Automatic annotation (TrEMBL):
Family: Belongs to the ROK (NagC/XylR) family.
Matches recorded under InterPro entries: ATPase_NBD, P-loop_NTPase, ROK, ROK_cs
Organism (species): Prosthecomicrobium pneumaticum
Record's keyword annotation contains Coiled coil: no
Uppermost EC category: transferase
Gene Ontology terms for molecular function: glucokinase activity
EC annotation from Swiss-Prot or TrEMBL: 2.7.1.2
Transmembrane parts of this sequence: none
PANTHER family on file: BIFUNCTIONAL UDP-N-ACETYLGLUCOSAMINE 2-EPIMERASE_N-ACETYLMANNOSAMINE KINASE (PTHR18964:SF149), ROK (REPRESSOR, ORF, KINASE) FAMILY (PTHR18964)
Entry keyword annotation includes Ion transport: no
Keywords from the UniProt entry: Kinase, Transferase
Protein name (Swiss-Prot/TrEMBL): Glucokinase
Length: 505
């Protein structure tokens, strides 16, 4: 591909239509959003207006992600859901109007292309993705390529989870789209007597504070979704299941909050990293692939892979590096993990003194605010901890390639899906975990002895009994290489540093 080109990506959703001009490196150069419409001609008019709003001379092609079944080979829309464009000659009309090649595919397939290239599935080859929005979209990647079946594999929103459930637009009953989409969440909120307009994020905050109505709504929303994911895990054995779309992060958190169920088919579930921008980035990338001139005798490049990728190689980033280019230095983080009073901060400081790597710690970020804000209670302290958690990874994300950080936190205070999203958005290439532990009674006594010196908002000495139970059941994250440290014994920071060197740090 010639340098300096861009493409326009369009993502058609049930609520909004987004369009963006995207560089070959995956950077969004211009973006717009407009209301969607169920009427096909009105939706097409909105797509045309959105393309015009971001168009530029260097835009070489147009990609469009469409809800519903799409024959990617021909660009024909075979059926739709909330926005049904099956009666519209979409590719022909857009190509005739703008005079550029147009790639059309399922909207979730476009989002998965982006996540595999530069998002939460980067470097992974077997991925399932569901997009949670007005409806539920789906896409499958096997061996680094989108799985098509005969033409339209991946309609995951129409997995049946309730055989006697609500009618679905596809003609069946009880599809997961009818139980776990944004539309379904709205029905559950209304059925629980909660205020119209209550958001998923607000439900999560209320559930964490012990609100039974919010907890019940989230549970009813997430259980059928997990049933669908469990079936996909058993059938496909993926590296990861991504939840994207406007409600992807909240859906991932709601699933993570459900009671654990032992299974033969464990599967990592994570929020997608690119949010609402995944669809437009993937559509633009697919458009550039479609418009790229091919060498004589070369087969067409699969969506989401470099045209020159060797068989068996992972999905290419956007764009693939030129031959001979210097690979970027990896960005890394050492996650020093453990419950409160487990001794993790001492381990983090000792490792920093040994290596020179900076420490980012929850309390270090949070405490200056606690010192200045009056009337802080435990829920506010928790909210501030969540913001500090995000700030840590935002700081890492702003750092240059080659940076290494030590992150000191009890990572179990947030769902693992939140951590996975933070790791992805921070651009971390490698993580290792140091699990700090001590006997539960020791942890409780440590906390009790220092409780009076902690700032307002932290739990008092009475929390020690609760902490004892937490210490007894807490487990490591299992993200990357793992080493355990018993903090009741003398610390050998040199051994930790040597271990990290062996792990490639």
């Amino acid at each position: 591909m010639a340098p300096g080109r861009s493409a326009i990506g369009v993502d058609i959703g049930g609520t909004h239509i987004r369009a963006a001009r995207v560089s070959e490196a995956g950077a969004i150069l211009a973006i717009t959003r407009t209301a969607s419409a169920r009427d096909p001609e009105r939706a097409l008019d909105a797509v045309i207006a959105a393309i015009r709003a971001v168009d530029a001379d260097d835009a070489a092609a147009i990609g469009i992600g469409v809800p519903g079944r799409v024959d990617a080979a021909t660009g024909a829309v075979l059926s739709g859901g909330y926005v049904d464009l099956s009666g519209v000659a979409l590719r022909a009309r857009i190509e005739a109007l703008f005079g550029r090649p147009v790639a059309i595919d399922n909207d979730c397939g476009m989002a998965l292309v982006a996540e595999a290239a530069v998002g939460a599935a980067r470097g992974l080859r077997n991925v399932v993705m569901l997009t949670i929005g007005t409806g539920i979209g789906g896409a499958l990647m096997e061996g680094g390529r989108l799985l098509r079946g005969r033409r339209t594999a991946g309609q995951l929103g129409h997995l049946v989870v309730e055989t006697e459930g609500r009618p679905c637009v596809c003609g069946k009953r009880g599809c997961v789209e009818t139980t776990s989409s944004g539309t379904a969440l709205g029905r559950l909120i209304a059925g629980a007597g909660l205020a119209a307009g209550t958001t998923a994020a607000e439900l999560r905050r209320r559930a964490e504070a012990g609100d039974p109505a919010a907890t019940g709504v989230l549970r009813a929303w997430a259980l059928p979704l997990r049933a669908a994911i469990d079936s996909l895990a058993a059938a496909l054995d993926p590296d990861i299941v991504l939840l994207g779309g406007g409600l992807g992060a909240e859906a991932a958190a709601a699933v993570a909050a459900l009671p654990a169920q032992p299974s033969w088919y464990p599967c990592r579930i994570a929020a997608a990293a690119l949010g609402d921008e995944a669809g437009v980035i993937g559509a633009a990338h697919a458009a550039l692939d479609r418009s790229a001139p091919l060498a004589a005798g070369s087969p067409p490049a699969a969506i989401g892979r470099s045209a020159s990728a060797a068989a068996g190689s992972p999905p290419a980033a956007i764009p693939a590096r030129a031959a001979g280019a210097t690979a970027p230095r990896p960005k890394r983080a050492v996650l020093v993990n453990g419950v409160p009073a487990s001794g993790k901060s001492g381990v983090a400081r000792a490792l920093a003194e040994r290596t020179g790597w900076p420490v980012l710690a929850l309390d270090v970020i949070k405490n200056p605010f606690l010192e200045r804000i009056e009337g802080v209670d435990r829920p506010f302290n928790r909210l501030l901890g969540q913001a500090s958690y995000a700030a840590i990874f935002a700081t890492i994300g702003a750092a240059p390639p080659g940076s290494t950080f030590i992150v000191d936190a009890w990572f179990g205070f947030q769902p693992e899906a939140v951590l996975d999203a933070h790791i992805a958005t921070a651009g971390l290439d490698q993580v290792a975990e140091i699990w700090c532990h001590a006997p539960p009674d020791t942890v409780a006594e440590r906390y009790r002895s220092r409780a009076a010196a902690r700032l307002p908002g932290h739990p008092g000495a009475a929390y020690a009994d609760e902490l004892r139970l937490l210490a007894a059941r807490a487990t490591p994250l299992g993200r990357g290489p793992l080493i355990a440290v018993d903090t009741t014994t003398p610390l050998d920071a040199g051994r930790l540093a040597d271990w990290l060197t062996e792990m490639g740090f």
